Amino acid sequence: MKKILIILVCINLFVGCAKLDLNPLSEGSSENWYSDETEIGLSLNDLYRTYLWELESDFNAERMSDNWTQRQAIDAFPAGSVTSTWGRGTDLWLNTYKGITRANTILSSLGNAVGKVSEAKIKQFAGEAYFMRAAFYSRLIFYYGDVPFYKETISIEDAFKLGRTNKATILASVYEDYDKAIASLPVTYSSSELKRATKGAALAFKARTALYMGDFALARDAAKACMDLKTYTLHANYGDYFLSKTRNSTETIFAIPRSFTLGVSWTATNFYTRTAGGSAVAQPSWEVFCAYTCTDGLPIDESPLFNPRLPFNNRDPRLKATIAEFGKEHLGFIYDPNPTALTVLNVATGNKVANKDNRAIDTFAAYNGLALKKGVDADWSDDKQTDFDIRIMRYADVLLMYAEAKIELNEIDAATLTAINMVRARAYDVPVTSTTLYPAVTITDQTQLRKILRNERRVEFVWENRRFDDLLRWRLAEKALKKPIFGVLDPAVFKTKVVDKGLYFFSQTPQIDDDGIADFSALQAEGTVKLLVNRAFDKSKQYLFPIPSKEILINKNLVQNPGY
Question: Is 467 exposed, middle or buried (0-12, 13-18, 19+ CB in 10 A)?
Fold first, then answer.
């Protein structure tokens, strides 16, 4: 039986791959491969490559959320133009099944290594494969619903006959795989192996899957078990955590590393300000800009501390750590999108230079006046390249998942509040017990606390690819992804209607609704903001991705999701 086993062997974890040439036709075979530690390790390494984690790479999930603004362009998903030929959905499907096939092959072939590799090492390898298979199937059922399901190495002919298995059946298997991974994986590795899946990663991913699927008791217990390992802590400084210099932080539970040394980096030009030599293609949205509460813990439309003229003042510190503050140094220059600021200071030289982040000077400066600061290093400036890790799971997420599960179970107690407050206190750079130094959460009403938790997740994980999933699972996409995207008026009009009237930056305070979503309709009505592009999420179909059309064409047993 011909097997789908065309094995790609990584030369190292993140540098090019070559087809294995051990058999005729250059096809690896499970009959004589996976027989020693090196061969199994090389095969597992492919599961850590970025192509299998593409929603987390290059902010791909963030592009589909309401945290993102990209001039007057819009991603296909929030534009409502997704079809069964949608490239991102097709690639996600294909690559995820590649990962599943590899994990299945490894698991079915580990017997080849018995007697040649230690039992402890075989157990670890199996744990990694179980972890990966569970993570990949979790992804598929979240985005696509019922999907083809297999746990063995199968022939191409049989693969083309698979129909869709009920996601509840798959989910039960996912939990079993996570449990096997939890039982098999070590809590930590040696310093040279910190990037591999661990027991904590398996617990955290199980918690995420359970939370997404509404299994709140399972989510609570898995998150708590991860916390009880006492292996992870919050990084001391929120802003520093995201810099490329920060490696192997005790907050990081699972990440895909990138490294200039290994030749794997990422082009940052689109997110670098124009004065500093970037292109400023995409920015944090106004919606997320307004999501940060004031230092009294209240939304901007409720707090007496908010001043729409000085929107960075008296705000949650994560705002200034995420979005460049107006009039302050950023990437070696004073950042100022005000149309009257024709020049700005080059901090290093002390000289004034043309302000290319002002749309009166440069048409393609940020269309909404905002610039990303989170994770942006000054060392990007030489070649606009960065090699920061792709953080897929961190301890702050575990804490907030634990709190959310407890809230949904209505088990609101001191542990629930402490989990939220640990994350919030870190943002204010104070101990969690110093409750007078930050807006500690004390509310125990389920409805109100749910609102606080959801906003806490949003501002904590801005541009970390978590918001998109949250919008889908909370069924808020139909609201958030139908709101128009706004930006500043064209320079001359902006100066006349806003700046010259003393109304800069916002002419009035945007309103925040019960779901924490900003409403700019009043500003639009008075003509002080510009409509950049409309969103058009279709709730009748878009809570699930379409099955790729090419899969439907070659497999008559596959049925398309409704609406596609």
Answer: buried
In a domain, 560, yes or no: yes
CA distance 191 to 551: 42
Type of residue at 406: K
Position 388 scores a pLDDT of 76
For position 124, which CATH number holds?
A: 1.25.40.890
Q: Compute the distance between CA of residue 248 and CA of residue 191 in angstroms, rounded to an integer.
A: 9
DSSP-based three-state secondary structure for 354: strand
Look up tokens 């083309």; give the residue.
Answer: 160
- Cβ pair 162, 144 in contact under 8 A: no
Which residues lie across from 259 on neighbouring strands?
A: 264
- Residue 239 counted as domain residue: no
Tokens of 2: 């011909």
Chunked into runs of 10 residues, the chain (564 residues) has average pLDDT values of 32 28 35 81 92 91 98 97 97 97 96 94 97 98 98 89 97 98 95 79 98 98 98 97 90 86 72 92 97 98 98 98 98 96 97 97 97 86 74 98 99 98 98 98 98 98 98 98 98 97 98 97 98 97 98 95 97
* Residue 58 lies inside a defined structural domain of this protein: yes
Domains of the chain: total? 1
How many whole angstroms separate alpha carbon 455 and alpha carbon 474? Answer: 12
Judge if pTM exceeds 0.85: yes
Residue 446 to residue 432: CA distance in whole angstroms: 22
Q: What is the 3-state secondary structure (H, E, C) of 363-427?
A: CCCCCCCCCECCCCCHHHHHCCEECCCEEEEEHHHHHHHHHHHHHHCCCCCHHHHHHHHHHHHHH
**∠ at Cα 204 (297, 182), nearest 5°?**
160
